[in-house]
Amino acid sequence: MWKVVIVVIFCFSTVCGLHLPKYIKPCRLDSPNFSECAIQHGNDAIANLVKGEKVYGIPSFTPFKVTFVSIDSNGLKMNMSNGVFTGIENLKLNKYSFNKKNKKIYTTLTGPLITFEFDLSTGGKFANLPIEGNGHGWAKIYNGNFSHNYEYSVVEKNGKHYLQLGKDEVMIEPGHMECDIQGLFNGNKQLGDSLNSVLNENWREILQQFGPVISEIYGSIAKEVLRKLYDRIPIEEIYPGMEV
Predict the structure, then answer these.
(1) Are the CB atoms for 84 and 60 separated by under 8 Å?
(2) What is the spatial distance between Cα 167 and Cα 146, in angstroms, rounded to a whole number?
(3) Which pLDDT value is given to residue 12?
(4) Nearest 10 degrees: CA dihedral of 226, 230, 233, 237?
(5) pTM recorded for the entire structure
(6) Which of 103, 124, 87, 108 is nearest to 42 (CA)?
(7) Going by C-beta distance under 8 Å and a sequence separation of 6 or more, which residues neighbour residue 167?
């Protein structure tokens, strides 16, 4: 059974009725070339948004910091702090589709390398190995696909219409993954090397167990950024031609 707690710090901003940044060019939703336009202009937007936008309450993603992640799963407890993601600025949007009938949006980004570095405190068992202690580690995802699909609804505020996020699903498919954890087992290098060998030789199985955590982190980031934009910019500007 999973129990995951994630603490991510975003800037606070409650201003609504803002306009699109100049570098975000809208695409008409009623255009037959909407997806192609959204992918092209979406990548232009990502290249700028990852630098941060204070007026919208969006932090910098170069790098992106995760204050705390707590995991409790099948007898293994892990607390990860001072987490830092790098490589987010290299993500590229390659899918963007809009299902108006079902009110759902589908997106996929790809990236050559995403690195997550963290401090670690853990206790319990993993892969039949007793694990306990404090350490430092990193995980690297190579050639990953990061999909975020979400439902939406439309609300009216002051004569303008805004998107609200509904249920969503996140899927992460790495081409390869590797990790390294140092400092556990009271610094016993032999036990540490054995653990890292197990982790890297069985990365697909590890991903099945810890994939929900990675998805939770990615999903929380994606949802928060989208909320910052959707809550503040009317859809008449973001998606011109959208029927409400």
Answers:
(1) no
(2) 17
(3) 45
(4) 90
(5) 0.85
(6) 108
(7) 150, 151
